[in-house]
Amino acid sequence: MTSDIVIGVVARTGSAVAVAVSGPAAAPRFLARREIELVPEGLAAQPYHAAAEMDLAAAAELIARVEAAAENAAAAGLRALSEAGLSETGLSEAGPAGAVRAVAVVVKPVAVPGDLAGVLRSHAWMHAAEGVLYRQAVLAAATDCGWTARAVEQSALPDAVRALAALGQAAGRPWRRIEKDAARAALTQLSGQAGRR
Predict the structure, then answer these.
(1) Side by side, which strands form the sheet with 5-12?
(2) Which DSSP symbol is given to 27?
(3) Average of pLDDT values for 158-180?
(4) Distance (Å, rounded) from C-alpha 8 to C-alpha 181?
(5) Model-level pTM?
(6) Separation of alpha carbons 132 and 124, rounded Å
(7) Which of 55-69, 94-108, 132-146 bottoms out in mean pLDDT, i.e. has the lowest?
(8) CATH code, residues 5-187
């Protein structure tokens, strides 16, 4: 069994759920999971909504602050999950990039205007832009940690019914759809699955 760790992540407004697994895709091993708060107290979890009443310069500044905070929080959360996963694999040292081979983030295809003013004109676009912001923050954080970051479309997640059942039994409760989707994203990057989407 490989000691490489793969982390799957589902980001949502202001937080993310991450699941670390290892081993071959046919027989994955649950290592750890973590809920990561992406926005510190005092910053708006829905920055585009908060920015709707601001002038464009102030709105852009707020959104940039939330992006930076989310990326920093994601990096800290992913590192903590990696350390928990390493202790489960029995490795004491991970090397410069750690034993994490990849971080797979579940994404949804969305179209939003390319300019802030355009996004702020529509409530639906604000929601979509916030989803993109948090998913991109996690992908950027994984890259900053020195790991391969992969976006995996929700529609390309494998069914993996047997693997999910085994992972859920090892993980214990809660094993909700969000944890299952994070695990399914991780499975796409384990040996025997890499590159298949």
Answers:
(1) 29-37, 15-22, 5-12, 100-107, 148-153
(2) S
(3) 95
(4) 8
(5) 0.89
(6) 13
(7) 94-108
(8) 3.30.420
